[in-house]
Fold this sequence. Notes:
The protein is mainly α. It has one domain (4-127). It contains five helices and no strands. It has helices spanning 4-30, 34-43, 48-83, 89-106, 112-127. α1 (4-30) runs antiparallel to α5. It is elongated, with a radius of gyration of 19 Å.
Amino acid sequence: MKRTAEIVLSIIGAVLNGLATILVIFFTIAMKSQSIIDQLKNDASIREADFQTVLHTIQALGWGIAVVLIIGTVIGIVAAVQLRNNKRPKLSGILLIIGALLVFFFTVGFGVLPALLYLIAGILSLVRKPPVIV
């Protein structure tokens, strides 16, 4: 039985997770740049204390979100490799569902689409049965 749909969904989800990881890392690094901080501080219509709180929160959460996205990317790649040649589809399905839940709940919205793709691929991996040859 071919598992093309599951493999394609897993790979697309992993690529989107990788792109989101790059975006989060770039944004987190950019928020440490003094020129960007000064520009945001001048443009913002919020108080200094609130701005500093938001800035520290973004800097702290950025690396955590990046780590979760990297883990999600690795899970998607491992699942796609396991699905190739129809090796261990149950394990791949469980990995994809765990990866979907991890990415969905811990990335504050950055990983909604990859999580949805992982969830669909995981359910397909668990539900599709190989044909019985009589």
